[in-house]
Structure formats: C-alpha cells, structure tokens
Design goal:
This protein is mainly alpha-helical and 222 residues long. The protein contains nine helices and no strands.
Length: 222
C-alpha cells in the first residue's frame, strides 16, 4: 500500500475520535455555562462578547478561533486538520445543543457545582479524544505555541499572560466569572492528566501532523 492510501485510511480512522472529542468539548462548555458558577478564561471572554453583540456563543467561538488562528499562523505556526475542525465544530455543536435546550441551570447550588464538576471531567476526556489523533492543536494552543516561539519566554508566563488578558477583558464585558473560574483553573489539568492515564496517551511522545505535511505526502513532495 502506498503512502497516499495509507495516509487517507489513517485520517479517516481518526476522524470519529476527533469529532466526538470536539462534541464533548462543546458539552463541557455548556455544562459550565449553565452551572452559573464560573467558566474558563476563554469562555468568559466569549460570553462577554456575546453580551455586547447579536452573535451566538457558537458564532463568537468560531470568529475568535479564526482570528486567533490567523495570528498564530503569522508567528510561523502551521495548523492541522484538528485545528481547523476545532475552530468550526465546537462553535457549531454549542449552537446546535443550545437550540435543543438540552441544559438548564439547577436551582440547587450543590447541583450547579456537580454540573461544573461534570464539565471539568468532560474536558479531560474531550482532550484525550481530540489530542490522541495527533492532527494538530486547537487555535488557542497554537497561539500559545507561536508566542513561545516568537517571544522566547517561559510557558507559564505566556499562557498566564494570555489567560489573564482574556479573563480581564471578558470580565469587563460581563462574562461569567465566579468561584467556578478558580475551580476550573486549579482542577482542569488534573482532569486531563487522569483522562490521558486512562487512555494511555503520552503527549510528550506524540508527533502531530500538520496540513503542510499532509499536502506534501499527497502530492509526493517528500
């Protein structure tokens, strides 16, 4: 079997895991939104924009993702298939699920915390399903990687600066900030780590394939 056919077979086999992972990301975002306890910095930013426009949360997610992707590409980063699908599908799924009225905010604060916890756990397994296909990072992670490459600063400084900036802007625009925002910041890493352990995925040894590499294989330029 030649490299073109093998690549296409591999890509087709990875798409279901990728799409399910993106669907779970959307569910996690909506669980946190409807918990009314707090959201992640980027989602606080997205909700803040929604508060001042006629756009839906999904539409804002897509537009912001596109802008971030363009900025990341200007720093020399090359997106993958997962990057592009991340940008479009999470927003699409958010709006679709919202139209179906799947989630509502419980009256009990305890149930709202449970809802938030469900969102955090869901993010972990969404990340596993999305990352294990090794087809590129999401636009926001690409932006961080591009800044790391361009600015030559530590990861904690770059990531912290980005998230503090979007959190501050989102808060000013009325985004959902609360104790849940702090809980997410402190626990989501453990959720992702747990999911990676369950799924036996080692991100440190993963090699992601970007669109340029796929193009080179399909056109026999390697």
């Amino acid at each position: 079997m030649n490299s073109k056919k093998q690549l296409l077979i591999d890509l087709i086999g990875k798409i279901p895991s990728l799409i399910v992972g993106l669907l779970l990301f959307s569910i996690a975002i909506l669980l946190m939104l409807h918990s009314k306890v707090g959201m992640s910095p980027w989602d606080v930013f997205h909700v803040g924009i929604v508060n001042h426009t006629t756009l839906s949360l999904g539409q804002v997610s897509i537009i912001v993702g596109l802008i971030i992707l363009i900025i990341a590409c200007l720093t020399g980063m090359i997106p993958g298939i997962a990057t592009i699908l991340n940008m479009f599908l999470i927003g699409f799924f958010i709006d679709l699920i919202e139209k179906l009225n799947v989630f509502s905010t419980p009256s009990s604060y305890l149930l709202r915390l449970v809802m938030l916890a469900g969102g955090i756990v869901t993010i972990g397994f969404a990340t596993l399903l999305y990352m294990r296909v090794n087809l590129g990072a999401g636009p926001r992670d690409m932006l961080m990687q591009g800044c790391l490459k361009y600015l030559k600063k530590p990861v904690w400084m770059i990531r912290g600066a980005i998230e503090v900036t979007v959190l501050t802007l989102g808060s000013i625009m009325g985004g959902l900030v609360g104790i849940g925002t702090v809980i997410i910041a402190l626990s989501v890493g453990f959720s992702v780590q747990f999911a990676f352990k369950v799924g036996r995925y080692d991100p440190s040894s993963a090699v992601h394939m970007n669109l340029l590499e796929i193009y080179q294989i399909l056109t026999n330029k390697t």
